[in-house]
Amino acid sequence: MAGTVLRPLLTLLLALAVGSSGQEAQYEQADKIIEGEPCPKGSHPWQVALLRNNAIHCGGVLVHEQWVLTAAHCKMDKYTVHLGSDELNSEGAQRIEAIKSFVYPGYSPETHIRDLMLVKMQSKARLSPTVKKVTLPAICELPGTECTVSGWGTTTSPTVTLPSQLMCTQVRIISHSECKTIYKGLLHRSMLCAGIPDSRTNACNGDSGGPLMCNGTLQGVVSWGTFPCGQPNKPGVYTQVCRLIDWIKNIIRKNR
Fold first, then answer.
1. Whole-angstrom Cα distance, residue 186 to residue 125?
2. pLDDT at position 75 over 60
3. Cβ(31)–Cβ(208) under 8 Å?
4. Which pTM value belongs to this model?
5. Neighbouring C-alpha atoms within 13 Å toward the C-beta of 147
6. Contacts for 134 with CB less than 8 Å, ≥ 6 apart
7. N or C: which end of the chain has fewer CB within 10 A?
8. φ, ψ for residue 74 (rounded to 5)?
9. 56 pLDDT exceeds 70?
10. Among all residues, which ones are annotated catalytic?
């Protein structure tokens, strides 16, 4: 993938905080999969990529034929939506221009509270075995639930190594109270934490806006985490989708 992906997003720091070890840890918007592996081919037909000049900007998920859900901090004036292929350079993928973005009310770029955005595409995606709408959650999954996070973000940190193939890794939901002991006042009730104890596997630069799938439903959208990515016992932080379903449905209904 082109080196042009090294955009300002990768260098924006959310905050400086003191971790549980007492050492300073930097926090930034999450954009990649660390210690993941290629997703089984066709296993994530709802996964999309938001491209800028044909390079990965953020991930996203198809929630309607004409709508993509992603992170609010991914907002740009112009981008192209890539659908239907695990390979970013695939000639068989659908490419549709985005025409409008709707940021969740009350989103804060400083704190990443309610880091959620809907993107309307110029035309409807052609649904197929490789392009499907995601299943939105009816419930909030409990701590300990095993989930999958996926994306085309960098696989190394702090250096950048960009895959052309969609990458996946397994994580588990961590309770809000446990995650609060790690991130202190940075953690809001609209956020969900997921990771594996003592493991480096996590999302990172380029994965922002991508899906956290648990029991076949979309439970989270990649939002932020530590930098460098993949620090053990520093879980990834996601916008918790199950709490914001009404807003998603209302925006789509009112803007057809």
1. 37
2. yes
3. yes
4. 0.83
5. 33
6. 46, 61, 62, 63, 69, 211, 213, 217, 218
7. C
8. -85, 0
9. yes
10. 73, 115, 208
